[in-house]
Amino acid sequence: MRTNRGLEASDSQTGNGASAGRPRSDEAHKAILDATLELLADVGFSALTVEGVASRAGVGKATIYRRWRSKLPLVVEAFSLLPALEEVDTGDLVSDLKQMLRHYLELFNSTPLGTVLPSLAGERRHNQALSKLLDPVLRERRRPLVRALERAVERGELPRDLDLELAVDLIVGPIAVRLFFSGGKLSSRLVDPIVDLALSGLRGKRSAQRAEGERSS
Fold this sequence. Notes:
mainly alpha; Arc Repressor Mutant, subunit A; Tetracycline Repressor, domain 2; disordered N terminus
């Protein structure tokens, strides 16, 4: 268990030179981010305070405010360190999506992501300052899915006029519903029906367009 005095002193010591100071400063930085994630999971965004983070991290509030002007950028940076969707490119959209989502569900069950994300998602609806900082991070975390769909369009697996962002919503929507409203762990058994049903709808448009073209010719 760290104490405020121990890490705060380490963070402020400079007597051994800059090269010695950097590891201690990095240790305090990591302790603050770790404490932020723990508190987000334990008490949620609304109840999280800089004072609480400082106490759990074993630093003084001044150490936090030297790095982040308020809890908003602190929370967003901490969240951005949580693992996200990993890029998968097998050359087949079904395989790509199923591998990506299985791994993603494992992350929800094995990291604070499953509790932190719902807390922040609920808060951002009525907190414009948080939304401004958080939304770019959320968009970037979706990019592996968007790129997988882009590759599928290029291979002819999906229609070229597909709304990619809406398609991503369709794929991850069932996970969000289960996460936000059902509670409990997310089972990997969800992945196959989610992907199969989503692609059935997305490809249905392409099949309809092909049938229409055949009727016209």
